[in-house]
Amino acid sequence: MFALRIIIFITLLLLNYDLCSCQCPHAEYKIEKQCCPKCAPGNHVGWHCTDDTSTTCVPCPPLTFTDEPNGLVECFPCTVCDANQGLRLSEVCTRSSDTVCGPLERFYCIKEEKGSCTLAVQYSECNPGQYIKQAGTGSTDHVCANCTGDTYSNGSFSSCLPHTKCEAMGLAETNPGTHSSDSECGDPPTAVAIIASSVIVTLLLITVISVLIFKHIREKKLSNSSGKLYSLIFVV
Ligand SMILES: *[C@@H]1O[C@H](CO)[C@@H](O)[C@H](O)[C@H]1NC(C)=O
Ligand SMILES: *[C@@H]1O[C@H](CO)[C@@H](O)[C@H](O)[C@H]1NC(C)=O
């Protein structure tokens, strides 16, 4: 019974070994039932090994790469960073490493593969009345937040600015501030009042004098005294 177990165990072991020997060791690749040494990163296979010779490896041609030991007869083409995908070159392709792409300015990455960005989109715009609470990074969008209280931002500020205090500058507020716009100031009220009132007083005076003169002219006309009328006009 024990002997049988041993035989089964050994059989399994041999079977297993046999299965394993179908595969090549880690540093070799299989080609036509034969194991050949792999080529180092940056190279590809020029000629497979034979019974007498080892693998012949050749460097990857320009704009191609292999980044792992391989039994490939051709290298992979280098990735091109596509501006239409919001990408720009971050690290150039070498024989042993693919291009690394990053997001364009004002873009952030939303898809990544093997440490290289494959798709980036533009930062969100904050609305007027909001400020950029947290500036976007290579992998995160802008974070917008509302202005509160007596402050404003047009959507591109990194903080809400306080409204201009017209009164404190001795000016009149001609337009109150909103969360998206500053208050607008005009001439101080006193100066406006002085100019307005003096204009009004002058106009009033001219009107009153004119009315008086015409009244006088009429009365004089009625009494048929034209000579005195002229003298009155000269006096005025
Ligand atoms: C920001 O303001 C908008 C409109 O003024 C409002 O709809 C929204 O709920 C506010 N957001 C927050 C987080 O308070
Ligand atoms: C907001 O104001 C800044 C500076 O005043 C200006 O450069 C920018 O173009 C404005 N942005 C918008 C969206 O109006």
Report the structural category. Answer: alpha+beta
Portion of residues in helices? 25-40%
**CATH topology (fold) name of the largest domain:** Tumor Necrosis Factor Receptor, subunit A, domain 2
CATH hierarchy: architecture of the largest domain: Ribbon
Write down the secondary-structure element order: HEEEEEEEEEEEEEEEEHH
What's the CATH first level of the largest domain?
A: Mainly Beta
Strand neighbour order, sheet with most strands: 1-2
Radius of gyration over C-alpha positions, nearest whole angstrom: 46 Å
Q: Report on the biggest sheet.
A: 2 strands, antiparallel
CATH superfamily of the largest domain: Tumor Necrosis Factor Receptor, subunit A, domain 2
> Are there runs of 5+ residues with pLDDT below 50, and where?
6-21
Proportion in β-strands: 25-35%
Shape: rod-shaped
Quaternary form:
single chain
Question: Could you tell me which ligands this complex binds, including any ions or cofactors?
Answer: 2-acetamido-2-deoxy-beta-D-glucopyranose
Question: How many DSSP E strands?
Answer: 16
TNFR-Cys repeats: 59-101
Protein name: Tumor necrosis factor receptor superfamily member 14-like isoform X1
Main location: membrane
Keywords: Disulfide bond, Glycoprotein, Host-virus interaction, Membrane, Phosphoprotein, Receptor, Repeat, Signal, Transmembrane, Transmembrane helix
